[in-house]
Amino acid sequence: MSRDPLILGHVVGDVLDPFARSVSLGVMYKNRLVINGSDFKPSAVVDRPLVQVGGDDLRIFYTLVMVDPDAPNPSNPTLREYLHWLVTDIPATTNATFGREIVCYEPPRPATGIHRVVFVLLRQMGRETVFTPEMRHNFSTKRFAMEHYLVPVAAAYYNCQREGGTGGRRFIRDD
């Protein structure tokens, strides 16, 4: 059985088809690195993260997509995927601030359940080849990539639930 956290967390399947990772992707909120499957509360993700992009060819550009495949509720994700952020034309070896933000950052604010928040880095075929989607809700990373000739090269995700939340599960201690 695969130990790949993107497969175990159903990111591959729900958001992406299997792909070959070929570029590094670092996502950091304040001073905390996003490690696949880690937990972040909404108060920790209010401000847009610093997103570092690897690669070695400065002539290559990337698109960063940030989605919630569990919106509005993991048991009934009727808005899957909700688009939280979209940045295009990010040069290799830089960070997302060097790109063109075409959908502004909207922090996750899950009301119920544990939501996966997924970052996908896609290689572009050229500059200014990616355009703004019509809506944030019912976005499809797979479809968007196909329509814009984008190739997935890296991904990362974290789990997010409301501040006082336990994901809808109640644990009763019997002490």
UniProtKB/TrEMBL annotation:
Q: Which InterPro entries match?
A: PEBP, PEBP-like_sf, PEBP_euk, Phosphatidylethanolamine-bd_CS
User: Which Pfam family is an annotated match for this chain, by its short name?
Assistant: PBP
Q: Which CDD domains match?
A: PEBP_euk
Name the family.
Belongs to the phosphatidylethanolamine-binding protein family.
Q: Could you tell me what this protein is called?
A: Flowering locus T
